[in-house]
Amino acid sequence: MKPLPSHVPSVGPARPIRVPTAAERKLRNGLRVLAIRRPTVPRVEIRLRMPAGLIHDGGQAARAWMLPETILTGTRSRSSVDIAQELQGLGAGLEAAADADDLVVSVGCLSASLERMLDLMAEVVTAPTFPADEVDVARDRVVQELIIGRSQPSVIARETWRAQLFGRHGYGRPMPAPETIARTGPAQIRRFHAERVLPRGSTLVLVGDIRPEQAVEAAAEAFRGWKGRPVTGATPAPTMSAPESILLVDRPGAVQTNIRLAGAALPRGHKDYFALTLANLVFGGYFSSRLVTNIRETKGYTYSPGSAVDHRRGASALVVGADVGTEVTAAALLEIRYELGRMAALEVDPDELDAARRYLAGVTSLSIQTQAGLAGYVDTLISCGLSLDYLRTFQPALQRITTHQILEISRKYLGPGKLLTVLVGDAGAIRAQAEAFGPVEVRNAP
User: Fold this and answer.
1) Does the 246-444 domain belong in CATH 3.30.1950.10?
2) Fewer Cβ within 10 Å of end Cβ, the chain: N or C?
3) pTM above 0.90, yes or no
4) What are the DSSP calls for 246-261, one per residue?
């Protein structure tokens, strides 16, 4: 029997990413189509992203919330049951989702079914009828989901930091009230759809066992009747602010505190984005980070602390999160601030930076190996105004980042004074703990 190796071999350099060749066309109606061949399995993944402006602007919040829940429920020629049966026959799946900026419809189907699937996709996206009975069912479900969601401490924490950081901008407006959703009918959703779901500025990404040029032709044929021009301009960027006081949302009797720190970050296309991304990874962005080592592995205060950058079209935010027992609120917050301060005061160890570099390069390479992963990644790049060339340049860009650059970017974005602090918990038990860090503003939970 051979002896086991006495040491772990070193990790080799990341392999360069092969940038796929794409066929691309902008249709006369303004729809941009991008098709990529990835013949790993006889399937194709499709992502249609529409800049529908779904941020909660004024009285549109309920309609924006209901649109992705009802857009696939029927057309003039097909009921929801008809659509489900057609999808089953095509070996396909179809779903809709939305974020603050965009409506995204996703499809996975057999390659042999591509043309029929594109026809069905175009029909349900461009000509939905929003049947009253289907809207009623979806509305009742959404009302219940909102009631439950608004009671969750993690949701309360998220809504609080967004409202404070983004202010009166649409990104900072709260989820719609359940009673507002309950008053939203099919006619309102139809009008919202007619105004917002439009081809100009939208993108269609196809990845799979396809011939790219033929796939572009099929998409052009399927969506040729989609017309309309946007009636709203680009979403303005918010003015972001972080108050000095700690915001404490009171949940009497809570046995844990949801800690969130948030502040401005950089978009993916910024020249310093990679430096900030690596700084965030070293701090709290993956399991080997300083934050996880400190308050999970060493102190045992929480199970899943972390930090991430929350990207939107008009702004990006760095968010730090940890859910801890009430009794260790101050101790956990102290360690979080200590690690943030350490990032902003001292250069990171070169080995830490190299580990973060390898992790990011590896995760990115793995994420685009599948058809669905590549489709999602390309869709994200396009939504950020980037090109496929990003895949070619990002590994060399990572290698150029120095420990000094990490220190400089950390001073700008990770210093404790750059971030607002939100605590959701029992004010009677944690207010005194929080006051050790500065003035505290107590608010009632919604």
Assistant:
1) no
2) N
3) yes
4) EEEEE-TT-SEEEEEE
